[in-house]
Amino acid sequence: MELLIGLITGIIWGYIFQRARILRFEKHIGLLTLTDLTVLKFLLSGVIVGAIGIQLLTTLGLAPYHLKPTFIAANLVGGVIYGLGWAVLGYCPGTAPGAIGEGSLDGIFGVLGGLVGAATFAHTYPFWKKTLYGIGAYGKISLPMVLHLPPLLVGVIFAGALLAFIAFLEKMGW
Known about the structure:
- By secondary structure, this protein is mainly alpha-helical.
- The chain is built from 8 helices and 2 strands, in the order αααβαααβαα.
- The chain has a two-stranded antiparallel ribbon.
- α3 (38-59) packs antiparallel against α8 (151-171) and α4 (72-89) runs antiparallel to α6 (107-130).
- The longest helix is centred in the last third of the chain and has 24 residues, at 107-130.
């Protein structure tokens, strides 16, 4: 049943991605050159839904939430690698398979690069754990914990701020 739900939601997301045109190389280059912010607004919309949805589901006891430890240096290095890969390829990892499905075969390089990168990381993990993971290791923390506020309230405030930012981008014609 879980596989069927995964298949159905995958088809729905693929349809939404395709209709929003965020599977297009030109849209990603537009974001990276700050000339077309469609992809950014789409991603922020997903963060808004997630910020409220996850906190609502966990607050109501409908879904478990497993907080992962924070490692500042590892997150920073991973983010730089992710960003460089996106800039070089012109697709983010989530849209490269969709672009392939649309017929853009250049996305294959992104998928293959991601698999090679994941395998490389897995085989070198002990090294990274000894070195990089020790820098900025804060353990299991979250913004609601730091602010001493209810998680749902923080989610709503964060979502509201992102929604205001999207509205600003729209008003400015971006």
